[in-house]
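Support request from a user on the community tier.

User writes: "When I paste my structure tokens into the form, the page sometimes reloads and wipes my input. The last time it worked, I copied everything first. Here is what I submitted, just in case something in the input itself triggers the reload:"
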């Protein structure tokens, strides 16, 4: 028996129990409303989506072609339209997630206005956006199911077979999908991290991503000046997130441990080592130091460490930060990742400076020597110049092969004159297959783009403004937007229905019967879009 039929039977029994006082209640309407509001709380969503994500992780372990993807969305409507498009074009939401980008929360959702990605925005904006995203996804469910219920009523009225429509209702696939949510560096100490993680989970997050930067000195992963924390501090925050999941009953919640060590050359704190070779000692071994022969080699306030039987002074900058040795990023990343997996993380995120399958794969191979099941969430970042990076990768490969490169200038490969060249076409093909290649060769379970919809909003607005305020005037909107919406079957061309007017009409009819004053009558201009295309 379907959930819909089960709910219908239960409400019929309730109506019978309460007798004439429920005479105006239609059990089918109530069952429909329950179906349209499957998830009653954010915790219901978090539990449902955590199970999906765990199942997807297992599938990837068996077959690396079963990787998952997401796009970062900065508003509920953007997330809703994304998932509507996924269902429309691909027929299923399977293995498609949402990503909540701290960068976009800072840039677009702070009451301070646009901010850099430095954890300066209100931390409450993060759970608020999670709740907003799921509110819009649930509304997409309600809208689509409402259309199916309308089709069911019409078929019944016409005396037609309703079995196919009823099957679509019974087997309806929700737009609610897992969200990987960015908690930055935790917005404070481990207690602050725990409190914020709870709010995020209560809003619906089944997966929280946390990074090993210093919380009050956090920088965007693709900018300079990043400062990491000792492993002990980072693991305490991983513990805090796990406890938040467990307290709220999301026992299979997912934690993504992000390391910025590849591009971070500084630390704020030197941890205390209690035994030779412990985590603190391993972290401190990466510090740039100078050997000390006597107290005369020290200045006021200097710190001294004992390493390998010698006294050394760590290099400290004027701002009090300590410097790591050059060319230690790879090894620090491996230690970060192994340690995070050993102490509670489920997935890894390695922030890199370029999209290069072999570079990522080399690090993952080193991690898997100790943690064979290690897998990544990877940022297909707009901060990379993908065109230039991949053209240069092809150029360098051809150079190693001894191929004639006289028609190309490596430093100018972004130029439009190369767009139709053999090199550019091969580079574009490598961009196209990057996700599949990296999933297969570099252990990437989930591919995301942090802030694509920031760029799409800017580009589409630029194109509209160029034409609308120029010679095209209204044609810029009609030809560039509305006509495309109609021809490509975008639901939001009927923006009144997308915003919920038809849902409201249904409810008015449920509540008021024939007295209902409905918006979707013959004079609704949305009817103009019911045309053949």
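"...and here is what came back when it finally went through:"
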């Amino acid at each position: 028996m379907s959930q819909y039929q089960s709910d219908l039977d239960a409400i019929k029994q309730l109506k019978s129990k309460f007798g004439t006082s429920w005479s105006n209640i239609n059990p089918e309407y109530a069952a429909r409303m329950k179906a349209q509001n499957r998830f009653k709380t954010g915790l219901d969503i978090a539990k449902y989506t955590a199970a999906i994500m765990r199942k997807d992780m297992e599938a990837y372990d068996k077959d690396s072609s079963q990787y998952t993807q997401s796009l970062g969305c900065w508003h509920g409507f953007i997330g809703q339209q994304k998932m509507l498009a996924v269902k429309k074009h691909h027929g299923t939401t399977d293995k498609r997630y949402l990503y909540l980008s701290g960068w976009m929360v800072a840039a677009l959702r702070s009451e301070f206005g646009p901010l850099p990605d430095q954890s300066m925005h209100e931390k409450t904006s993060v759970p608020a956006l999670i709740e907003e995203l799921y509110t819009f996804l649930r509304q997409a469910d309600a809208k689509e199911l409402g259309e199916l219920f309308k089709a069911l009523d019409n078929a019944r009225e016409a005396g037609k077979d309703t079995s196919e429509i009823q099957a679509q209702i019974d087997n309806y696939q929700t737009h609610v999908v897992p969200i990987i949510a960015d908690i930055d560096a935790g917005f404070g100490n481990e207690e602050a991290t725990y409190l914020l993680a709870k709010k995020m989970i209560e809003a619906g997050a089944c997966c929280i991503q946390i990074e090993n930067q210093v919380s009050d000195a956090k920088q965007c992963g693709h900018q300079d000046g990043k400062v990491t924390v000792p492993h002990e501090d980072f693991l305490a925050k991983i513990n805090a997130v796990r406890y938040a999941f467990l307290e709220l009953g999301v026992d299979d919640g997912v934690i993504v441990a992000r390391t910025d060590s590849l591009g971070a050359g500084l630390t704020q704190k030197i941890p205390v080592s209690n035994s030779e070779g412990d985590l603190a000692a391993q972290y401190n071994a990466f510090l740039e130091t100078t050997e000390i022969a006597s107290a005369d080699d020290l200045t006021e306030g200097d710190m001294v460490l004992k390493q390998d039987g010698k006294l050394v002074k760590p290099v400290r900058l004027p701002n009090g930060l300590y410097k790591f040795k050059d060319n230690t990023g790879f090894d620090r990343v491996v230690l970060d990742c192994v340690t995070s997996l050993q102490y509670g993380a489920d997935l890894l995120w390695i922030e890199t400076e370029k999209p290069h399958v072999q570079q990522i794969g080399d690090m993952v191979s080193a991690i898997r020597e100790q943690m064979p099941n290690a897998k990544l969430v990877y940022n297909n970042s707009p901060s990379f110049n993908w065109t230039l990076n991949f053209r240069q990768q092809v150029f360098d490969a051809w150079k190693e092969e001894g191929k004639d490169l006289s028609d190309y200038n490596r430093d100018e490969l972004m130029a439009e004159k190369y767009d139709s060249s053999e090199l550019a076409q091969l580079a574009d093909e490598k961009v196209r297959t990057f996700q599949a290649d990296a999933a297969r060769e570099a252990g990437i379970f989930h591919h995301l783009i942090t802030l694509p919809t920031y760029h799409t909003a800017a580009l589409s607005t630029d194109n509209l403004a160029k034409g609308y305020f120029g010679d095209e005037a209204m044609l810029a909107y009609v030809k560039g937007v509305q006509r495309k919406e109609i021809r490509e079957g975008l639901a939001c061309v009927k923006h009144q229905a997308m915003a919920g007017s038809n849902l409201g009409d249904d409810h008015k009819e449920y509540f008021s019967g024939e007295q209902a004053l409905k918006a979707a009558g013959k004079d609704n201009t949305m009817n103009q879009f019911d045309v053949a295309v």
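Agent notes: The reload is a front-end session timeout and is unrelated to the input. The first helix runs from residue 3 to 18. The chain has 19 helices and 14 strands. Escalated to web team.
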